[in-house]
Design brief:
Arc Repressor Mutant, subunit A, 2 strands, 182 residues, mainly alpha
Length: 182
Amino acid sequence: MNVKTPNPAQAEEARTRQLALLDQTMRAAGAQRILYSALLASKLGLRQTDLECLFIITLGEDVTPGRLAEETGLTTGAITGVVDRIEKRGYIKRVRDPSDRRRIFLQPVAKRISEIRAANRQMHDLWMRELVKYSDGELELLLDFAKNNYRSAVAATIALQKGDFPKGGDSAQSDRPQDKSQ
């Protein structure tokens, strides 16, 4: 039996195509998620940034306004406005740290968060139906990828907020996979 092994250049080209397709698919999914989030926020009477910040608050433990500013790349002044608005809508409450009264934690209000989860149930159920198709090992890989992707997104957000981004005409080229065969 004669099995043909691709040459290294072909293997590299195939890998480059796969990476480009993964990047393109993730960008499309990210764009769709942003559109979904904007629509959900409007249905809940929130701003999209407020809803995204609320998600971060609900996913974390002992989230402070400073930590929220750091993770979102928003200024502390902007975060104060976000926190004021979502607290006014009843989704969170400010709770003083018992060990340091100067520190404030942003605590989700369970009843109000459950209302958002009910509104978001269809999207969640569709997502879970896709995830159950994967083996335990594949889920571990996906979880590792998602954690790294999240950390990278936080780091990129912070860098962009600080003004650390490419300038000039080459910025659009810098995020495309490079063809090394030329």
